[in-house]
């Protein structure tokens, strides 16, 4: 069409030819080529995950070897079990049947084996065995294919480590993740792994590795996932198993028709508030189908699960039978206790540090009745055992008497079991202090535990986080049966809330993709006024993270990644908090000199001193080790300091214990502690990153101590702050269950009287079934629910912020809209800056002015 | 994810669709094409020349510059023509053409070569129906102005210093550039289109993801 309109810009015919004339005069270029294959990696999420995994598995060879052995082990266990069940003639072994040998009378092991053809016939005839064999065969093949695939993928990661990061596999186990990460950040400048940005930040890497985990943590934090049940007779319990988790992830993140288009982006229709009801319906039907599929596959999964448990745990149980009685952090606990942007190894090391204290705490609650019974049973069993053993020593023919050996064994087991019910004679009952120490490590705890540590309810709730290993295995085993029902009956009802959640709490970050907005750890967006961010936060109740998750996560991330440059506001928050903690710790504990203006009257006094010196001195937890019980009276404070010190790896600062034990040198001890830890950290963060192994290790150990201090401080502050406003939490519960009813929280400080109905502040994630805390009871907002016109301005934000339509229609059909949050669709390009105070799109609440007090 | 994406939106009348599309796609390709590379012995190369050409539109008050390569023009016209056919004639409708620049990455044996996009331009078209000639006249000018703005947009985006594949050596030139044309050498590109926003991903991609995920550690 346009061919005739050729203008004066005519092509030079000469340049058309292959080799232009006067070639030697032309500009000559040198290709830079793709020297490194690491630029522009397609799936950075997967890539970083693999880099992280390889680091956690200590290098390629270790991983390879481990997996090969696992495969072999699996084969062996199945083969051996089948062999024992089918190919052994037990009559011969038990000497019920005689073999007639020609030459000797001894029975040999091969005599007991059935001939091969008999054996295989027996296996073939047994349907159950065949079924198990087929399933484990499929399982094994799956593992094999996975293994081969992994080897290919990880080989690439290995060459990334050696060629790009310049870390050989041999020394990889001795690098911390922070070092690996720093190198990745370093090489981004050169290789451009990510093409969006010139430089990667630590947060980007974390976001990519933990994208979905952050969503899960946030959903547990906002009590969106149905993991709490109240079955009759059993009372309230938490049921969250790997199978359930797998299904959740399948539904939300990657399964067919999931909410996510790819690993890094939510489907656009879920970002718009327009047809949320339709989408919720779609999601509900998907959940139904997946639930039904689960139900149909139930027998297969069940067998699989049993086999899996059998293969993974029999060996452990055989080795140390006590391990079943031991406890472990439950899956729910790991989700509840996890910070946003916390990698697996960070979480695990934190929880492992709290393990000892936690099991001590749980052991405080041995039932006295059981103890009495156990003591007596142990006594009788012990006397029988003693007699039998004495007889055996006198004449070993006693052993030949039938069942003597087995009764000796049985009695021994019986005594072992009984002993576990008898508390340690030297154990001191001090649950409150133990809980403090636990808190220092696990960082999260519902408010109502504090001061109630000795109660059984607290213990029961803690056991939801910290369950028996045996219970864990049992739950895993019944999970295939229960999961479909949870999906069909509980999760399906929540589909609208889920849709709202993903719409409201997803932000698109340049160079990372869609992430959970909580994971941005922006105090302003998601801070909770009761957790240090009073006045800084602009979040409505729906947007606040519960239990101080935002604030604690932020501190944790800033402390573990000192190189990270947070946005200015966040920096302010961090430095302010750090300063406070340091001042509290270093300041003179006894002289209440709070002349500084920033510490207003309402500010709690000497919080650190409080928990250092407070009646339950922390040190007594560690009495076994410290022996500081002796001088507890006069110098409780220094005990406190030493107790706190032992929160960290105690050997590190062992030198202090002797010097500071004698007198009330609390301030110096704790100053040394906080000061030096921060000093060390700032010093090394200032200098170049590679000062050697020691620095970074020392750093991470200090970091955990520092974080413990901060966690305790924040909790203490919260406790003091929340005394005035007890009723907050019950409102929370209701509001976030309504998913979208949002009330601005600006006026939180102003005139919130205690709610007479709920004397104890219940934390959100540990709701106890009081009438108002039942989801969707929708009894209407409490009368004094203050809606303020505080939210007129949308927070200026560098990212595209996607406000959802945060209104909700009550079950009775009325709009219960109270205050308006800025809303709007997802990224309507043409529309430019959308004013938050324009008329909302949904018709149902157009007639409702923004600041209505809906009083019922 | 690891790819820039730019979105352009235009609303045009039915008969203007192909010209508008051609204008935008050609403008982008003008900036994403080089002359042919002539490799020499010591790993150096020289770049051939590329002519440009002004094209005037029939139904829009607008003219644009394109690379004067008939071959390239033919390929793009074909794609745009298909798009227009798929849109149907004259009726209201939405559609989207994506121009995706990618590079190939050779993989070892068990895997096929990967095509990794590094920039995707999505051009959303909204077709409107006009009642009378006067409106058409106004539309003609309006669309011309709009397209002018878009061209400036494109140039702004392209002027940013952002990731581009590195200049390849002779053996790798096929991984970065489309060398099939005689007179010009654009970066490897792919044109796809989509009519209205059909929901859901295709079954095959879901299956692939399912398999991949079960295989992943």
UniProtKB/TrEMBL annotation, chain A:
InterPro entries: Autophagy-rel_prot_9
Compositionally biased residues, Basic and acidic residues: 725-736
Membrane-spanning segments: 60-85, 123-141, 287-311, 365-391, 403-422
GO cellular component: autophagosome membrane; endoplasmic reticulum membrane; Golgi apparatus; late endosome membrane; mitochondrial membrane; phagophore assembly site membrane; recycling endosome membrane
Protein's UniProt keywords contain Oxidoreductase: no
Gene Ontology biological process: autophagy of mitochondrion; lipid transport; piecemeal microautophagy of the nucleus; protein localization to phagophore assembly site; reticulophagy
Subcellular compartments: Cytoplasmic vesicle, Autophagosome membrane; Endoplasmic reticulum membrane; Golgi apparatus, trans-Golgi network membrane; Late endosome membrane
Reactions the enzyme catalyzes: a 1,2-diacyl-sn-glycero-3-phospho-L-serine(in) = a 1,2-diacyl-sn-glycero-3-phospho-L-serine(out); a 1,2-diacyl-sn-glycero-3-phosphoethanolamine(in) = a 1,2-diacyl-sn-glycero-3-phosphoethanolamine(out); a 1,2-diacyl-sn-glycero-3-phosphocholine(in) = a 1,2-diacyl-sn-glycero-3-phosphocholine(out)
Biased composition regions of type Polar residues, renumbered to the chain: 766-779
Region (Disordered): 653-691, 724-856
Acidic residues compositional bias, start-end: 839-848
Topology in membrane: Multi-pass membrane protein
Keywords, ordered alphabetically: Acetylation, Autophagy, Cytoplasmic vesicle, Endoplasmic reticulum, Endosome, Glycoprotein, Golgi apparatus, Lipid transport, Membrane, Mitochondrion, Phosphoprotein, Transmembrane, Transmembrane helix, Transport, Ubl conjugation
Keyword Amino-acid biosynthesis: no
Domain of life where this protein originates: Eukaryota
Biological role stated in the UniProt entry: Phospholipid scramblase involved in autophagy. Cycles between the preautophagosomal structure/phagophore assembly site (PAS) and the cytoplasmic vesicle pool and supplies membrane for the growing autophagosome. Lipid scramblase activity plays a key role in preautophagosomal structure/phagophore assembly by distributing the phospholipids that arrive through ATG2 from the cytoplasmic to the luminal leaflet of the bilayer, thereby driving autophagosomal membrane expansion.
Entry's family note: Belongs to the ATG9 family.
Protein name: Autophagy-related protein 9
Organism, scientific name: Esox lucius (Northern pike)
